[in-house]
Amino acid sequence: MISLGSYSPYIAEFFNTISNIPLFCLSVLGICQCRKQGYGLRFQLGYWTLLIIALGSAAFHGTLTRAGQAADEVPMVLATSVFLYQILERGRSEVNRTLAGFLLVYVTAFALVYVLLPQYFGFFLAAYIFGVLTIYYLSSKVCPSLNIAHTATLTSVLHLQSAT
Length: 164
Description:
The protein is built from seven helices and no strands. It is an all-alpha fold. It has one domain. It is globular and about 50 Å long.
């Protein structure tokens, strides 16, 4: 068994920390491609949230601190909100300010309660699972041609990446 800090005295979980490098690189590539192709801000925001997740996950696994855990988990709920917005606004060119405002208030309220609540992990888990299940449900409604196995695989991949 590998002990804490055995690969580096500066990084608590070395491999969990560096496993975020591919997500970081792909996020930067996605942001650049969105700009190059002229895609809207909502698509760039999706990649930005993935980039923030990569940085937050590296911060958590590199330090194993409460602040690092918050930097890991709060962006995951932010990302689910951005992805929900993308699904709900599929095919629309104008910004739905009401929906965007509601999701912004939701994420802000979540972050405040997360910071203030002593039992924050259960709260995070409930909010994140709710977001992922909502994305899953809406995706099946928006694109019914996706079979359940493909959607489940995609959801599993997203979950595994966010769990690192």
